[in-house]
Amino acid sequence: MFSAGDLYAIGAGFFWSLSVILMRISGLTIPPLPLTLFRSFVAIVGFVVVLLFTDDSLLPKYDAMTWLRLVASAILGISIADTLFAAALNRLGASLQALADCIYAPSVAVVGFFLFGEGLTAWELIGGALVISGVFVGMVKTKEIDDPRDLIVGTVLAAGAHVIMALGILMVRDVIREGSMIWIAAFRFIVATAGLALFALARGKVDDITMGFRRRDTWKHMIPMGLLGSFLATLLWIAGFKYETPGRAAIYNQMSTVFIILLAWLILKEKMTPRKLAGVALAIAGALLVAWAG
Question: CA-CA distances (angstroms) from residue 217 to 44, 207, 208, 228?
């Protein structure tokens, strides 16, 4: 039987996969930074609307260190990680990006080890090796990628995004378990969006802030992308970490890999090659082994 936390984590993976497909379509015309800013804004609107119907305090009483951790979590987990993810997606395409995403579960395990001393067993290490080997098996130059450098750069960006994302969420795990998921999600997105906007202003890239809002022709993809991914998937993702152990939640999140590759094949018409299938099989087997060992 699946627990509530299991279902939240699986749901997060499913809705995130739908968002990734829309992100891939939008990313063909909108660069990573404007894309992240717009979908983060959509998420903020969603969270604020939900907060209006809850009894959650708009200003919880946290100590200074907790506030600092929440701000750092937002900058790392959304401002930086989400922008790296969008940049990787532009280089790899949806199905190869999904293979690179298999780095996520081992990232959570490793970050959990360094932050909380949660030991890694021999089976977990073997599982992590299988996941990484699956990524390398699936990585092959295809017609989807014109420049072979994009394969390497895209994979490095994706790996960095997931390590930073894991660090961003686990550094506030105790706050999530004790506080309001909706408020914490809203706060993280508000801080992250403000940080990205300031970064764009500092670089003199005002167009990066406004592009997503001006390009109304992309809204049919970008608004659902923000609602399904940045809003709904994020809420379910945080709920998974709140009600389930990090390793188990991460494994169920990892089901997004299967969903993305299938959706990329069905919707984006990306090729389903034997090598991709082999890479997926290895990566999923490794992810399941990490979950079983935990």
Answer: 21, 16, 16, 19
